[in-house]
Amino acid sequence: MLSEGLKILYVEDNLGDKLILEEYLLDIVKLKSFVHCSTIKDSIHIIKQNTFDLIFLDLSLPDAHGVDGVNQLIKITQSATPIIVLTGLNDHSVALDTLKVGAQDFLIKGDYNKASLNKAIKYSIERNKVQHELFLRNKEIIIAKNRLSKAEEMAELGSWEINLNTKEVKLSNGMKHLLGLNKSIEVVSLKKFRGYISNNEKNTFIDSLLNGIDGSHSVEIEINFLNEKGKIVSTTCKAEVHFDEKNRPLEVYGVNLDVSKIKEAEKVKEEFTNELARKVTERTLELEKTKVKLEESLLKEKELGELKSRFVSTASHQFRTPLTVIQSNIGLLEMQSEKMNSEYVEIIDKIVGRVKREVKRMTNIMNEVLILGKISSGVVTPVFKAVSVVSVCNRVIKQHNQIQEDSRSATIEVTGSEKAVMLDENLFEQAVSNMISNAFKYSKGSEAPSLSIAFQDNDVMIEVRDKGMGIPENDLKNLFTPFYRASNVLDIPGNGLGTSIMKEYIELNKGTLNAESTLNKGTSFSIIFKVD
Q1: Which tens digits make up the pLDDT trace of 305-339?
Q2: Which residues pair with residue 450 across a beta bridge?
Q3: Closest CA to 337 of 352, 358, 356
Q4: Spatial contact of 404 and 440, defined as CB atoms under 8 Å apart
Q5: Cα angle value 154/157/163 (rounded, 5°)
Q6: Gap between the Cα atoms of 60 and 40, Å rounded
Q7: CA distances from residue 368 to 60, 360, 363 in whole angstroms, order as listed
Q8: Average pLDDT over residues 96-118
Q9: Could you give the CA distance from residue 306 to residue 284 in angstroms, rounded to a whole number?
């Protein structure tokens, strides 16, 4: 019996009979539940909502009598639940009929005891389990046969079985299709089967099978059939013989494949393979030529890169000399302005201030161009060490908060358990500084920017957000292009190099940089580093 207890349903309209059965059951089995109802209609409703291990059924109910009640319960349970019927002495013949339609056993009311009840329960459950498994297996076999039959037709296959004692041949649907026979024909005589075989193979077909098989090996031969439509069907036949206990051939099993289409496919395949080989050869030659050209292009690109780096470096240094001269002369001009009439001093001061600002701006551009040149030429090599990103970010925030003319102060928020990250600290600090600087620069008149650091299991994300003017959607894709500036910031001083340098610094630190923005609502830059 089930170790966790039986779930039993009793369909009975006599309360006295119900109490007797329940009392017996409590003594002989472990009950998980005992449900009672008095009509077939109620039992069907209960069964739809519950599962039971066993059903006891009275054969005389208000809405069903005899075999009818059994049939209804078998239909609703799909034969998965064993049924024991209880009947009076006068209904003995009816009880026997219920066994024929699917009930597992029957008991005569007033004539059963605990021992017979226990026996009936045990064997009913075991028999029903075996029968239900057989039912499911047979269902699977039928489905498999139907699938096999369909597969044979689709694959132009046919199978057959020859009984050498009865001289009969059982044909599959696929074999019937190959021979042009009606599907209703199940078996043909061996003589008729031989009649479909071409004349030069007819007399030797079976003999060649029997002589070529020793009981442990199969044989493969080519057989041509002439089907009912007069069409010659060339097939490859694989067959084997089953022997009886005296090693005498008993049955022959074979499978035939229509090879005409296969041969045609092989011909097409061969032509395709030859064409493919020719194209591969041509393509290989083209790739070799392309490889040579690519190597030449790479060499030229390398030379151009080196030339560009030297030019950028030289140009930057060459620009510094005249800028230094201008700076020095501006200093002299300031000294001389003290000797001029007061009416000229104000004009000279404005001019000197303007020149100083432009000299400083030009110097910054040269410095940033020189940085990009060094990065592109591979001169900048990061030095990794364990870095506290929280400490670096706090330091950058403090520096920028101190120099804001509008007294705004950026905030910082840290979530998760802090972990050290392997970084080049200087490059990382410069990248964060550029992010904070831009956030202040492009959000004047709005809230102060914020910086957040989120530590997770495998990474850390540093994000800088502002609520400034934002970046137009069409400009986002070019944001990290050198010298590119968004269309809505042209009246704000800048050279379009800061974001490019920031991205290069982050990638040198093996991180990723992303930007999101909504026009007139703000922008966020996020850095993600993997944490081992």
Answers
A1: 555 555 555 555 555 566 666 666 676 666 666 66
A2: 411, 465
A3: 352
A4: yes
A5: 140
A6: 10
A7: 100, 12, 9
A8: 88
A9: 32
What is the pLDDT, as a whole number, of residue 342? 63
Give the separation between CA 345 and CA 338, rounded to whole angstroms.
Answer: 7
Are the beta carbons of 390 and 453 closer than 8 angstroms?
A: yes
What the block records as the tokens of 431 is 């990248």
Angle, helices 342-376/498-508, rounded to nearest 10 degrees: 30
Q: What CA–CA distance (Å, rounded) separates 162 from 188? A: 10
User: Tokens 């201030």 map to which residue?
Assistant: 353
Secondary structure of residue 31 in the 3-state scheme: strand
| Residue 218 burial class via C-beta count within 10 angstroms: exposed 0-12, middle 13-18, buried 19 and up | middle
Q: What is the pLDDT of residues 208-246, one digit of tens each?
A: 665 655 544 567 778 888 888 888 888 888 888 887 888
Residue type (1 letter), 430: Q
pLDDT in tens, 145-156: 666 566 665 657
Phi first, then psi: what are they for 255, rounded to 5°?
-130, 130
Exposed e or buried b for every residue in 495-512, given b needs 16+ CB within 10 A? ebbbbbbbbbbbebbebe
Q: What is the pTM of this model?
A: 0.39
Euclidean distance between CA atoms 527 and 522, whole angstroms: 17
pLDDT at 106 over 60: yes
d(CA 6, CA 19): 17
* Sheet architecture: strand order including 54-58: 31-37, 6-11, 54-58, 83-87, 105-108
